[in-house]
Specification:
The protein is an alpha/beta fold and 313 residues long. The protein has 2 domains: 72 residues, no CATH class; 215 residues, 3-Layer(aba) Sandwich (Rossmann fold). Strand 2 and strand 3 form a beta hairpin. Helix 1 packs across helix 5 and helix 7 packs across helix 8.
Length: 313
């Protein structure tokens, strides 16, 4: 069992209905603001109560709200579903680390490409992600967008990350690359998307140190369409031991006596038993694992039933 988390409703800032102004120009489906990425609101919901969202302006700030008045402001063109929320535990450590790294993401990518065969490695990681034209594809923990850049065009891509610093870099990258990518700042354990939305869901790097890996996996299953493949890739114990030597953040996480040693291995134990065809494979010369499975066509709703009030952020 993962360490339990507090009720998200106790950690969120709420705006009153009186403070929310619905924008009269709102139309269903999607919208665009200057310097704002297009958002398809028909596939999004409030990740904490599952209510539909619409755009609104609160005290001069543009964002998304639901019929309870809960408000999520836009930051650099993407909705911030962590606004007013206290991020805790390993999630907070990860957020701080990548916020600080966001400013250096472009330079670090170039350095890694120069020093290591990183393009080859990334190509191998993405080999099993094969979307068709028109598919909706979600990357959980999108970072600066380098994975999606290497996937086929003519696909509708979506990405979320807990780090605003990395998402800000991703916004700059997508504009530079001419890539159409809808972004959100959110917790992977509370995805802001409706059930059965995506033709493919994938995650590369990070789940080893999520607060609640089981919940994150069930959320990925929930938002995937029946028949969609879910792919989770992260570092093996072998690779993590290397990272401990050169990354203080990883050293703190791994050497903390409170951290479960199972975090060094593929989290296959959290895949619901209703899913039979679960594959765990070592890739990239054993430095990474790939956990993948297909959501059943006739899925059981209990597979991803997660009462929000019983879980912590």
């Amino acid at each position: 069992m993962e360490t339990p988390h507090p009720n998200p409703f106790s950690l969120l800032s709420w705006s009153t209905k009186a403070g929310v102004r619905k924008d009269p120009a709102f139309f269903p489906g999607s919208f665009d603001y200057p310097n704002t990425l297009t958002m398809e609101l028909d596939i999004m919901h409030n990740p904490y109560n599952n209510r539909p969202l619409h755009r609104a302006t609160v005290n001069g700030r543009v964002g998304l709200t639901d019929d309870t008045g809960m408000f999520f402001p836009l930051r650099n063109g993407y909705p911030n579903f962590l606004a007013g929320q206290q991020v805790t535990g390993l999630n907070r450590q990860v957020q701080r680390f990548y916020d600080s790294m966001g400013r250096l993401a472009g330079w670090l990518e170039q350095l890694r490409a120069f020093l290591f065969p990183f393009d080859r490695r990334r190509t191998e990681w993405l080999r099993s992600i094969t979307p068709k034209p028109g598919d909706r594809v979600l990357e959980v923990a999108v970072g600066a967008g380098y994975n999606i850049r290497r996937l086929p065009a003519n696909v509708r891509y979506y990405g979320l990350d807990i780090s605003g610093g990395m998402l800000d870099r991703c916004v700059r990258n997508t504009r530079l690359w001419g890539l159409n990518l809808q972004l959100s700042q959110a917790n992977a354990e509370y995805l802001p998307y409706c059930d059965n939305t995506f033709d493919s869901v994938f995650h590369i790097g990070g789940i080893n140190f999520f607060n609640d890996r089981g919940r994150a996996i069930r959320e990925m299953i929930r938002v995937a369409k029946p028949g969609a493949r879910v792919t989770i890739i992260d570092a093996t114990a072998k690779e993590i031991k290397k990272q401990v030597q050169r990354m203080p953040f990883v050293r703190r996480c791994v050497c903390d006596e409170a951290v479960d040693r199972s975090r060094l291995y593929a989290p296959a134990q959290f895949v619901p038993e209703e899913i039979r065809d679960v594959e765990v494979k070592l890739i990239d010369n054993g430095s990474m694992y790939r956990l993948s499975f297909v959501k059943p066509i006739n899925e059981s709703h209990k597979m991803f039933l997660l009462p929000n009030k019983q879980h912590k952020i």
